[in-house]
Amino acid sequence: MANFWGETLRVLEQRLPAKDYATWIAPIRLGEFADGNATLEVPNGFFRDWVRQYLMQQLTDALVETSGQACRVSLVVNRDLGTPKAADPPRDEHRRATIRQTRIVGRLVPDYTLDEFVVGASNELAAGAAAAVAAEPARHYNPLFIHGGVGLGKTHLLNAVGHAALADRPKARIGCLTAEAFVNSMIAALRRDQMDAFRARFRRIDVLIIDDVQFLGGKVRSQEEFFHTFNALHDGRKQIVLASDRAPQEIRDLEECLRSRFASGLLAAIGLPDATLRAAIIVHKAASLGLELGPELSALIADSVRGNVRELEGVLNTIRARASAGALPVTRALVREVLGAVRTRTDADRLVSHVMEATAAEFGVTAAEICSARRSARIVEARHVAIFLCREVTDLPLATIGQRIGGRDHSTVLYSLARVDKRRAGDPKFRERLGRLMASLHES
Ligand code: ADP
Ligand code: MG
Known about the structure:
By secondary structure, the chain is an alpha/beta fold. It has four domains: 77 residues, GMP Synthetase, Chain A, domain 3 (2-Layer Sandwich), CATH 3.30.300; 177 residues, Rossmann fold (3-Layer(aba) Sandwich), CATH 3.40.50.300; 56 residues; 97 residues, Chromosomal Replication Initiator Protein Dnaa, Chain: A (Orthogonal Bundle), CATH 1.10.1750. Helix 10 links the parallel strand 7 and strand 8. The longest helix has 32 residues. The radius of gyration is 24 Å and the shape is globular. The chain binds adenosine-5'-diphosphate and magnesium ion. Magnesium ion binds next to helix 7.
């Protein structure tokens, strides 16, 4: 568990200002972690309230990322931890990190390196291309465009390109950020009337790595700006690497000029790992977690978790946490128990996404709109119905249903259910509509 908490700390250290990290995160100790419930120990009540108010989201996000599962954080006071000093980070390390970071626009996740990436049939084209462009930027494929579903290693490979490029050429300037961060930084620059500085910053970059470019879909102004940045770098023979959850042709509302630029280099798809790759990933991750699984348990896991790599990682992290960080032996019973919990969760996840799809289609809205804060009549109605259907077809607690539908709280869920009940009683057309939706869900 120390390892996994250590990883969470590293993520937070990268994300937070050094001072906040040293003051509010470094003193925290991981008490317990089971089934996504993390108990974190903090030195006093003031500390607890401060963290709860300002850092809860960041903490939870980091835990979700490193454990690969939904997490709930509780903070408890442990007076033994003592009053933290307004700690300074170790100076040398801090300075070195600062120097390293000045060469990077955005950030590189420390452990997402090529060494840590296990190659198999479903990702070998992408991994090979990533290694090639990192070794010789702008010589092979430009851009390199990696696409595939969630949790399959796109972000990992993008970061690996950054690390490898930097290892070969310590002076290289790397830009590694999401399309969303690019857009936000552009908007901020526009607002402050600093577009020249914005352009200069991005056009100095030697290797530009942009994650989740599907985010640009529908954003005309951002696409235009990105197009100019792209061309300036490409013309200057700088390497560009992009990742997206779908191929360029499938990104909605993307200007033709960008679409064709995106597809003009190498398109490398990553697919779901096959049994061989799953087994290899399990061996690799178990070793780095210090877990002794043996061939039989490894095979059991490889055979049971057939989804993406993130799920696989989540299972291994949970097994490790349950085996008290390696202090207890990993038994077959323990593995079965963890796998059972995962299966129930993925079933519920699948049902929720069916509900979202079916409701969105029925009401002519998108799943994202249902989860959004928008309040147009049609979206609100679809949202009430989606919540109602989730309660009908899953056995998830209401709070969890609210979480899945755009992070709504328990009372909002109750309100939606009441609205649907009321309309169901008085409106035969609505009743019919619900019936149709329910039937379609039972078929799927
Ligand atoms: P994506 O960006 O495609 O959604 P990520 O790159 O975030 O996926 O990968 C999810 C998790 O799975 C990460 O922790 C990553 O390190 C791990 N992962 C994915 N593919 C591999 C692989 N081939 N070898 C090792 N780890 C992998
Ligand atoms: Mg990603």
